[in-house]
Amino acid sequence: GKTIRQLNIQQQYHVNVIGMVHPDEHREIAPEPNLALAAGDEFVIIGPNEAVQQFDQLARRDLARYHNLN
User: Fold this and answer.
1) Which of 39, 47, 52, 60 is the most exposed place for a label (fewest CB within 10 A)?
2) Which residues lie across from 28 on neighbouring strands?
3) Cα three-residue angle 28-32-35, rounded to 5 degrees
4) Is residue 14 predicted with pLDDT exceeding 90?
């Protein structure tokens, strides 16, 4: 999978990834930018309210699009 760095989240969405929750409920604080993402990983983000809401909406849209393709 892609890495956090490759997704360019901070520059593109103006939020910071401060943690990850993996499908097995393992939690990771301050994940490394080169961490490869896997299906089911969830971001814990921080940023201005507007940016967090926009990121959430875009992530939900992309997730719905992914499920419609499979």
Assistant:
1) 39
2) 20
3) 85
4) yes
